[in-house]
Amino acid sequence: MDLMSCSDPGAWREALSSYRTTLESLQKPHVLPLDDFYRDQLPLLLRQRDPEPYITKAELFKLMQWKLSRGKWRPRLQDFVSKLEETEVESASRRGFLSLPDLSKAISELTVMKGVGPATASAVLAAYAPDVAPFMSDEAMVAALGNKKGYTLKQYLLFASKVQEKAKVVPLRSKKMLVVSSIVPHGRREDLWYPSVFSVREEKTS
Question: pTM for this one?
Answer without folding.
Answer: 0.81
